[in-house]
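ok so i was messing around last nite and threw this chain in just to see what happens. nothing serious, just curious
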Amino acid sequence: MKSTRKRTSVILGGLAGAAIWVTLWQLATTVGPLKGMAGIPTASDSFGQAFSLAGQPRFWAAVLETLTMALTGLVIALAIGIVVGVVTGLSKGANDALDPMIQFLRPLPAVVILPLVLLIFGPTRDLGIFLAAFGAVWPILVQVQVGVRDVDPVALDTARSMSLSWRKTQTAVVLPSALPYISTGVRIAASAALLLSIGAGLLAGSPGLGKLILIAQEAAQADVAFGLIVWSGLIGTAFAIVLSLAEKSLIHGRRTVEVTS
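result:
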């Protein structure tokens, strides 16, 4: 009962905060200092365009493209992050060999490699998938490494005493123990994947919501651009809620640990 009341309070608080920001936006652009400023539409115009976009098949096709790029990139990042994270988390030799490259690539912003990736893939879906995977792999990899290194040594000794194979030990002992860490990494990575999927269209012309925002910007349709940005925020929020619910379902009450990378 208390958890239900707390959840309701959080939702109502979030809605109230959003309403306050929208009201301030509307006032600032109608009677405030932003009135008549080119490129900044009113909140009512922006949300009106957002509502209008919901009836356009082209908009939903762009949403599907963006989600496809984000989810595909996330799956690729998850596969790479788990494999490399487990190997480097368990083997000092593998960590010594791979860590310099990881430390070099991890702080590299995706926008820095965008020109090179654009030359390779062009303004295509593949470019968006690559950027999404590149941005999402690091939080997953770091969380997997920490989760693997935090596995109870007694559990590992028990697996060895039972003569379990390396593969069985990983799937039955290591990965389940590291699951709270992995789920946290996936939640962080999913936001990065979605942002970069939209950014691929905005900065490089890949299909999706980002490209629609770019087209609206070039056509000086500020209200349409802001309407698309509103939808991007709503989709991102829904994406985060779905992943949070999935995380709670997967870990079954295990503690979730966040590690600052």
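not much to say yet. DSSP finds ten helices and no strands in the chain.
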